């Protein structure tokens, strides 16, 4: 029988695996193990499930910037393509160690010192570590359960001034059920020596999933651009961290404002659309509970609302 099969034909193992991979890969933030349990039960075939899990879990972990505790309890490692040495081994630049990861169990199983060729030069490390220190302070203040890491993405072997190099910053923070809230941001920066200029680009992504009295999900993201002058390692780190803090706190404030205004806009649309009163009531009950939940999460995670008017778009705009 071909993989495609005809109408009414049973699904092939390949088709079952493809479907299972889709469900696992699209699991809400922090909930892949719940989805995996149901997928495994529905498949009724351990071999097909294991093949699907082996494909889906690594991509899910990298996409969601999952953080895992290091075996020696020296900190957490972020699972990201920036630190990926191979499918199961990831660099932790802060501790200069390489962790072996079990993607399906989401645990670190082994740890070894990073080889010299896996690490940046002393000159680049001075810039990297200074930025890591400043961002760690920010993340500790802004996201109580957040983690961050700084990776060298270009020019890691440069021994001194005179050439360009680049970094990538990843920040991840989660709050778990029944009010799943996942904040992920990736920032890249290119240091241009000739122009003495640092070009900064960022992508912030927020996932929220409320399922206690309904099933409401949010998946929103935004791109940011900024720049600063190239200075000493410490001064560059302070400047870059300040820029990231500004963009993230401003976007978080815009999200909070959107949640608090969502109920009125939803009620207006519902009435104009001639929903029944009971339908409107049920819908608003779920959405209002969701709004209050995420507004609270935003307060808990954020650095406080900015007094400036947010320049970011409203993800719930119904214009």
UniProtKB/TrEMBL annotation:
<dbReference type="InterPro" id="IPR042276">
    <property type="entry name" value="CapZ_alpha/beta_2"/>
</dbReference>
<keyword id="KW-0009">Actin-binding</keyword>
<comment type="subunit">
    <text>Heterodimer of an alpha and a beta subunit.</text>
</comment>
<dbReference type="GO" id="GO:0003779">
    <property type="term" value="F:actin binding"/>
</dbReference>
<dbReference type="InterPro" id="IPR037282">
    <property type="entry name" value="CapZ_alpha/beta"/>
</dbReference>
<dbReference type="GO" id="GO:0051016">
    <property type="term" value="P:barbed-end actin filament capping"/>
</dbReference>
<comment type="similarity">
    <text>Belongs to the F-actin-capping protein alpha subunit family.</text>
</comment>
<dbReference type="InterPro" id="IPR042489">
    <property type="entry name" value="CapZ_alpha_1"/>
</dbReference>
<dbReference type="InterPro" id="IPR017865">
    <property type="entry name" value="F-actin_cap_asu_CS"/>
</dbReference>
<keyword id="KW-0117">Actin capping</keyword>
<comment type="function">
    <text>F-actin-capping proteins bind in a Ca(2+)-independent manner to the fast growing ends of actin filaments (barbed end) thereby blocking the exchange of subunits at these ends. Unlike other capping proteins (such as gelsolin and severin), these proteins do not sever actin filaments.</text>
</comment>
<dbReference type="Pfam" id="PF01267">
    <property type="entry name" value="F-actin_cap_A"/>
</dbReference>
<dbReference type="GO" id="GO:0008290">
    <property type="term" value="C:F-actin capping protein complex"/>
</dbReference>
<protein>
    <recommendedName>
        <fullName>F-actin-capping protein subunit alpha</fullName>
    </recommendedName>
</protein>
<dbReference type="InterPro" id="IPR002189">
    <property type="entry name" value="CapZ_alpha"/>
</dbReference>
């Amino acid at each position: 029988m071909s993989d495609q099969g005809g109408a009414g034909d049973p699904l092939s193992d390949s088709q079952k695996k493809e479907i299972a991979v889709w469900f696992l890969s699209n699991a809400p933030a922090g909930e892949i193990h719940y989805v995996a349990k149901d997928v495994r039960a529905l498949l009724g075939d351990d071999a097909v499930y294991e093949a699907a899990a082996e494909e889906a879990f690594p991509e899910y972990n990298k996409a969601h910037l999952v953080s895992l505790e290091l075996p020696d309890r020296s900190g957490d490692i972020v699972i990201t393509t920036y630190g990926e040495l191979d499918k199961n081994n990831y660099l932790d630049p802060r501790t200069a160690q390489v962790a072996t990861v079990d993607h399906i169990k989401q645990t670190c199983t082994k740890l070894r010192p990073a080889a010299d060729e896996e690490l940046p030069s002393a000159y680049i490390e001075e810039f990297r570590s200074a930025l890591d220190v400043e961002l760690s302070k920010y993340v500790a203040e802004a996201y109580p359960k957040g983690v961050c890491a700084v990776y060298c993405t270009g020019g890691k072997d440069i021994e001194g001034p005179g050439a360009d190099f680049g970094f990538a910053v990843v920040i991840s923070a989660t709050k778990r059920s029944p009010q799943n809230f996942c904040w992920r941001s990736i920032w890249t920066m290119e240091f241009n020596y000739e122009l003495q200029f640092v070009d900064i680009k960022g992508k912030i992504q927020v996932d929220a999933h409320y399922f206690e009295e309904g099933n409401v999900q949010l998946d929103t993201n935004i791109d940011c651009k900024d720049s600063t002058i190239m200075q000493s390692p410490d001064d560059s780190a302070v400047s870059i961290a300040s820029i990231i803090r500004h963009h993230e706190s401003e976007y978080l404030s815009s999200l909070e404002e959107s949640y608090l205004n969502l109920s009125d806009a939803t009620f207006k649309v519902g009435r104009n659309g001639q929903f029944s009163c009971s339908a409107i009531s049920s819908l608003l009950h779920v959405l209002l509970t969701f709004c209050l939940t995420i507004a609270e999460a935003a307060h808990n995670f954020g650095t406080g609302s900015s007094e400036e008017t947010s320049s970011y778009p409203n993800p719930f705009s119904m214009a």
